[in-house]
Write a structure and sequence with these properties.
Number of helices: 8
Structural class: alpha/beta
Strand content: 15-25%
Distance between the termini: 30 Å
CATH architecture of the largest domain: 3-Layer(aba) Sandwich
Helix content: 40-55%
Order of helices and strands: EHEHEEEHEHEHEEEEHHHEE
Number of domains: 2
Number of strands: 13
Strand order of the largest sheet: 2-1-3-6-7
């Protein structure tokens, strides 16, 4: 799961990042309105946390932007404002949930997971697509009934592809989704190829169709329109 945290209070952001990292949730950060706007336009996230009061703008305008670009991201507003009017405005403009400061990190995590399941997984912990079955609670993956032994990144890759079926994902998008802000430590994205190659091989060896395909010069796609592709 990939989460964008839009909040100008850096100490709070760091606490959230450290807490969520223990659950292997990928996080990215934006401290200003313009920085957040750039990330929202450029990348897709599973869940976005938005503070209403931001340097350079209002978080509610970011909520409206997400709706304008038809983003599939779940939106959780986090703010010190606790008036009924602020809450109603946020929900009316398209936010999915609302959490007032101060809050417990455990509650924040629970809200994030609940939003992810509701929006991305249709409320289920088990994802089934043709011969592929994933239990997101236990992280067990099966293909044609066979258990796949995947690394953490291979597991995250498979979830990313299943959440973006038939959509071409560039190396940059994949890297940002799986490594978040830490991707800046790499000189290039060649390492992604090996992760995808290993995942694809394990799936095919256990009976899966070759869903994951290379789109020359662009990136990769989880192609569901397969007939007799070898």
């Amino acid at each position: 799961m990939k989460v964008l945290i839009i909040e100008d209070q850096k100490s709070l952001v760091q606490d959230i990042v450290e807490y969520l990292s223990n659950s292997q949730i990928i996080t990215e950060k934006a401290f200003t309105f313009e920085e957040a706007k750039g990330k929202i336009i450029s990348f897709e996230y599973d869940v976005i946390l938005i503070d209403l009061m931001l340097p350079g703008g209002n978080g509610l305008d970011l909520v409206e932007l997400l709706k304008e670009i038809h983003s599939k991201s779940a939106i959780l507003i986090i703010t010190a404002k606790d008036s009924l009017e602020d809450k109603i405005q946020g929900l009316e403009r398209g936010a999915d949930d609302y959490l007032s400061k101060p809050f417990h990190l455990a509650e924040l995590k629970a809200r994030i997971i609940a939003l992810y399941r509701r929006t991305r997984l249709s409320g289920n912990s088990v994802i089934i697509f043709e011969e592929i079955e994933i239990d997101t609670n236990t992280k067990n993956v099966k293909v044609c009934g066979n258990v796949l032994v995947l690394t953490q990144k291979e597991y995250e890759l498979l979830l990313l592809f299943l959440s973006n079926k038939n959509r071409v994902l560039g190396k940059n998008t994949i890297a940002e989704s799986l490594w978040g802000d830490y991707v800046d430590a790499y000189d290039n994205y060649d390492f992604i190829y090996q992760h995808i190659k290993n995942l694809r091989k394990k799936m095919i060896e256990n009976g899966s169709k070759p869903f994951i395909q290379n789109v020359y010069g662009t990136g990769y796609k989880f192609n569901t329109y397969l007939n007799e592709v070898s």
